[in-house]
Amino acid sequence: MIISIASGKGGTGKTTVAVNLALSLSNVQLLDCDVEEPNAHIFLKPEIEDVKSADVLMPEVNNDLCDYCGKCASACEYNAIVVLPTQVMVFPELCHGCGLCRMVCPRDAISEEPREIGVIKRGRSGNNVELVYGLLNIGEGMATPLIDQVKEHADPGKTVIIDAPPGTACPVIAAVSGSDYCILVTEPTPFGLYDLKLIVEVLKVLKIPSGVIINKAGIGDKNVYNYCEEEGIPILLEIPYDKKIAEYYSEGLPFVNVIPAWKTRFAGMIDEIGGEL
Ligand code: SF4
Ligand code: SF4
Predict the structure, then answer these.
(1) Where in the sequence is the domain holding 255, given as residue range(s)?
(2) Number of H helices and number of E strands within the chain?
(3) What is the pLDDT of residues 160-207, one digit of tens each?
(4) pLDDT tens-digit readout, 2-47
């Protein structure tokens, strides 16, 4: 199973859930796709076994072959290549490295050169969780190709947990696409509800079944619960607003390691999801 963990907004406890869930399962792999700010490794403290550069292929135009026909610019969905009367300009910060311009060029004037956008690190925690995470270079805007490359490490022989970036934009869609199920982490506040509604709509379009974990249960109001009931979205688990859990978090301690009863709850939740699927 591939299970992604998402939330419409940051700070709801998405990574806490991803890490604690991974630690509650056996034969598991955690892919941290929050490549702008990965932090699952802070809690899992893995021994890093492999670091490799993540590249995208940038077009490079041979002016001796180019006749400035403009076909490459017309084909590019991202306006990343512009053809002037005697010059072709490529904007690396817009280019997704899809290779379409090279394919459509009738004069074979485009070659491709790798450009590093970040790194991918792979390691294993003491609890035998395999962790793969991407780290986007500072100032780099191309998160989605790096997310795609992190996901290429998914091991079909394991339960794969994907920690998605916050929000509802392209990087989230890249992270959750292809998941069998998406766990949405929210908090019972008006902000939590607003952002939950956005991500639920995204998942409807992607046709990915979902359920909700309510973090900091006990604060706020009942509107999140009412919304889930109206939409027929199951509430999978409630994590109470508990000072002790917050303290463990601030110390970088996954709470399932300190309160093992939570391991049973997380593992039971995955069994239920598996049964439902
Ligand atoms: S499609 Fe090829 S020949 Fe035409 S402008 Fe682009 S690079 Fe030049
Ligand atoms: S590789 Fe793709 S995104 Fe980049 S310039 Fe060519 S068509 Fe545009």
Answers:
(1) 2-54+124-276
(2) 11, 11
(3) 999 999 888 899 999 999 999 999 999 999 988 999 999 999 999 999
(4) 999 998 777 788 999 999 999 999 999 999 999 999 999 999 999 9
Q: How many domains does the chain have?
A: 2
| Pair (47, 89) in one structural domain | no
Q: Are 274 and 211 in contact (CB under 8 A)?
A: no
Q: Which atom of ligand 2 is nearest to the CA of 97?
A: 1
The pTM (predicted TM-score) of the whole model is 0.89
pLDDT of residue 9: 73
* Residue 184 backbone dihedrals phi, psi, to 5 degrees: -100, 125
Token pair for 175: 């992270």
Counting atoms of ligand 1 from 1, which one is nearest the CA of 104?
1
Whether residues 163 and 97 share a domain: the answer is no
Do 163 and 14 touch, CB atoms closer than 8 A? yes
Q: What residues line ligand 1, using a CB cutoff of 6 Å?
A: 61, 66-72, 83, 88, 105, 107, 109-110
Kindly report the protein residue whose alpha carbon is nearest to atom 6 of ligand 2. 101
Which bound ligand lies closest to the C-alpha atom of 99?
2
- Specify whether 176 is located in the same domain as 129: yes
Q: Which residues contact 232 (CB under 8 A, 6 or more apart)?
A: none
